[in-house]
Amino acid sequence: MDQDVSPENRLIIVSNRLPVVLTRGENGSWDVRPGSGGLVTALAPVLRNRGGIWIGWPGTVQAEDLHLEELLAEATRDSGYSLRAVALTEEEQAKYYQGFSNEIIWPLFHDLQSNCNYDPDYWFTYQKVNRRFADVIAENSAPHDFIWIHDYHLMAVAKELRVMGIRARCGFFLHIPFPSPDIFLKLPWRFQVLSDLLEFDLLGFQTLRDRRNFVQCIRALAKEVAVVSRGQMTTLHVEGRQVRVGAFPISIDYAEFADHSATQEVADTAWYIHEDLPQRKIILGVDRLDYTKGIPQKLDAFRTALRKFPDLHEKIVLVQVVVPSRFNIPKYLDLKTEIERKVGEINGEFTRSGWVPIHYIYRNLNRRELLAYYRTAEIALITPLKDGMNLVAKEYCASNLEHNGVLILSEFAGAVAQLQKGAMVVNPYDVEGVGRVIYQAVCMSAEERRFRMRRLRHSIRKRDVYWWVNSFLQAAISKRLDQFPLVEDYAPTREVDHWPGSVCQAVVHGPVADDDRPSSPHR
Ligand code: GDG
User: Which of 253, 308, 414, 415 could form a disulfide with 206 if both were Cys (CB 3.0 to 4.6 A apart)?
Assistant: First the structure.
């Protein structure tokens, strides 16, 4: 048990990855930096100063000179909570994470069954690693803690905890979609996965559609379970226990995005971006390298818009940021090749002196750059083939301080349920339709843009990440976040950067990279 903080009612967050990335610096020392991705963006501000624990894989295989505990303690020194690592071997990582999680569950739950590789060995290792996570949770938790497990990598953890006799309340939130029964039925381990999920006390999904799909799977495959739906919540009666099932659309720290976007450093960076692209409207795409994000289809739609509407030539630029991800899986490498080929073809077809239609960025942007792109882009083009939520859509709106941006959003992103009234909703497979909507967005009047963006921002502000966490905790244990113990002596000792929640504010050892230094106010 952790002795540093009150044992009462702590929040224990468990996810596949810790919210940090460990890398070896040029001088051989280890650096700890904030991780990226939707889960970190959403949860880091939530845990700040609540004295909880975050358990996960640190993202690196144990090396002899890696003083992991020391590094993790240093990384969260100012955050008010602590990190605990789950060690994995290279083989476990390959079979549990890349294999079962990302070659089976990820494609299946995104309706892309033909991308699945049902290797039985993956399932075996998945269970073994879930047990390992349960061990670390058992070592670090007390009966009054609330254990909140995240995402499809860890669906069997509650089962393992129950086997070990751990009875603490345990909730699960699925960040990705849950498929309809006709797709879920293809999973060779469909009965085991459903029965593992039924060991949690609360199951949270992103949207009503996901919750409905899950309940339909229960009705089809677990006939002994009684289903009672009342209002927003469904209760499953399983062998004398009750499992609550609800939809909790995840969100962002709206105020933090809006405030940081308003800073001079972001404004300066945004100004330079536009100065380099004079008289062009910027259409922005920000996606992890993933076949669910619909990047090739988006490029096809952009090409269609340029072919059909020549008056767009030299007036628009697509800035497509692709964040490197899962490059050990062959499908992802193929996707990268396909994207780069298409970008080359389109630029080859349309580039004129002084105008390159697609600016392709294949790397992680730092937060200042990302916000500057959000702030400066006239249009955000977010067209996943399927997405649990899509936080980029919400971040773009929160950062659009001038209320002049247009959000083009796929009807298959979970975010559409909340944002459909202000966004231009498209079918990402319909490249002609998306091409037409790009044209309409470019031509949209300032009044309509303002009207739509105000609506979007209002809705995201009202249901931000604190609303999300409070509704989940309320449903799980009838508590709000502010009822968890505040770390009283919480006092950042160093100047923090603007990473949400200031998970880890600094490089622990080694030099600060140039692009992480704040830009000087030149204007
Ligand atoms: C999963 C689900 C669900 C992106 N590029 C950079 C960067 N990002 C950050 C964004 C955003 C996050 O990564 C991406 O979140 P998404 O929600 O768009 O997508 P996934 O990573 O697939 O997340 C998704 C989410 O979980 C939460 O439940 O919405 O459906 O698939 O926060 O800001 N951050 C930085 N540089 C980048 O270049 N710093």
Answer: 414
Closest CA to 160 of 200, 120, 124, 107: 200
Q: CA separation (Å) from 116 to 3, 23, 210?
A: 44, 31, 20
Crossing angle for the helix pair 367-376 and 391-399, to the nearest 10 degrees: 70
Contact 485/8 with Cβ under 8 angstroms? yes
The total number of structural domains in the chain stands at 2
Last residue of a domain, one of 462, 480, 502: 462
pLDDT per 10-residue tile (average), the chain, 523 residues: 52 91 75 71 70 86 68 75 88 95 97 95 98 96 93 98 94 98 97 98 97 97 94 92 96 94 96 89 97 98 98 97 86 94 98 96 95 97 98 97 97 97 98 98 98 98 92 87 62 36 32 29 31
Q: Is residue 497 part of a domain?
A: no
Domain around 66: 11-251+465-490
- Is the CB of 41 within 6 Å of ligand 1? yes
CB-based burial, 476-503: b 16+ in 10 Å, e otherwise: bbeeeeeebbebeeeeeeeeebbbbbbb
Q: Residue 301 domain-assigned?
A: yes
Cβ(362) – ligand 1 distance below 6 Å: no
